[in-house]
Model the fold of this input.
Amino acid sequence: MTSMEGKALPFVLAAILSLGAIAAALPSTPVPADQALLAARWTARVAIPVFLVAYLARPLHQLLPSALSKVLLARRRQWGLAFALSMTIHLGALLVNILIFRPRPVEEILAGMAAYSLIFVMALTSNNWSMRRLGKWWKRLHLLGLHYVWLIFFAGRALRLAEGDPAYFLSAFIMGAVLLAALLLRMAAWSVTRRRAARG
Ligand code: HEM
Done:
């Protein structure tokens, strides 16, 4: 695989997953409002694994270095941008929902809009020039953005569980548990690297 192909892989996978989610949603029901809802739901769900690769590439390499973790770390920027692509496709699906089928009050979507602002600022600053210009603020911005997106994903799953609807229980439980495990992995990597640095 050439390095150009390696760089394109996250985008190709994200596009296949997101467009596949829409292609699966459309024939699954004859009701257009339900098609739009399922397209929004499934495009968001398939964005989670893409997010997790970007979120976990560094901690995985720190805790369990391998040839695969090295490649993921080297391509972390592309995975982050591929996640922004997935979320842009989710945005398209939810705009159809909001503008055509079910308008929502602004206060209901404020947290999601803040997440989108961070996702797009992170995508726009995912380049060497921005890293140099922003200095230590670059890392702060991207740490904040990553964890805020994690929080929005996790809070959504927690709300679903709290609603107690059996139709959503299993998917919300699995996605919530995976997200929690990802956070714990990051915390473990952070603590291990701090201890390694303290030992010199
Ligand atoms: C203004 C911003 C947003 C709006 C209006 C919005 C709207 C929606 C809608 C209409 C659905 C389908 C509802 C359903 O499943 O019943 C949905 C699903 C979902 N959204 Fe968004 N969204 C927004 C931003 C985000 C962001 C930023 C994230 C993640 C960081 C996200 C994650 C999800 C997830 C995981 C689902 C699937 C829910 C499930 O599986 O039950 N959304 N969203």
